[in-house]
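Contributing new records

If you add data, match the layout below exactly. Sequence lines come first and carry their own label; structure lines follow with theirs. Keep one chain per record. Anything else will be rejected by the validation script.
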Amino acid sequence: MSTSIMVLDQSMMVLYINPACEMLFEISRRKACGKYWSSLVSDSQALTERMITAIKEGHPFTEREVKLEVYGNRILTVDCSVTPLYEPNSEPSLLVELQYMERQLQITREENLISQSQAVRALVRGLAHEVKNPLGGLRGAAQLLERELDSDELKEYTRIIIDEADRLQQLVDQMLGPRTLPNKSMINIHHVLERVYALIKAEAGKGIEIVRNYDPSIPEIYADTDQLIQSTLNLVRNAIQSMGDHGKLELRTRTKRQFTIGHQRYKLVVLIEVIDDGPGIPQEMQDQIFLPMITSRADGTGLGLSIAQSMINRHNGLIEFNSKPGKTVFRILLPLEKMNG
């Protein structure tokens, strides 16, 4: 069964768990049986009280998308169904069914991110077309006017117009991101990360500790080296800037088997994680951070994450994240099989 099953007695002591529940809680049946629910799941007082009421009054219930904190400070999102059991000549017990929802919710988030990225690219392309034409005309008119002027003082104003037109042109080009197709070849992902490490080590202050945690068994990936360096570097720089003068940054690689990115399932996916212990991303910004011009820094352009997402999307991959104070994790997911594009 894929559903995790647990049986509790009236005192909320575990009488039985099935193999799926062993995997979910990362504990063996032998160790779990005899323990109390509260020792397996912390900070669940409201749910525990409902379970005690259910076994006393005989009323089953179901709660959707419940967050349970279990061993190892892991947070599990589950659908929880609780059913009282009554048998002749036996004490009442409680059947608890837990359906792990995290991956389904994650797939939904991934699909939303992909749709958002596609919509943003279409919007930016349309905006760039509408802006570039009048911008070119404005710049050309300023150049013609400058030739007709004899006063250096007046030419200074036309020079400002030309310079600002060029600055806007550059900003539009940055929003569009790379306009050439990825130059893909078989590469070692750790060569990319070592390049990023070398670049960021020179920029990070002495109070920043950088840890590399690589899986050396990861095979080569078919990708554009420069685009992977740029997209990873954007994530790492954001992490360094969020931590300030002190903190810990981890670069971590792993693989995922039979993993879904959006609608597509892949046999093998490489996972690159950028983990920092900074203050985290404000909750109100978390749904918007991949949009262009969204930034919490006064000196930021808000283009780094948008461009990074675009580059990874061109490799049929995705950047996702979760963030709370003290731990922010950005994940780059890339299929390890050749795809068209």
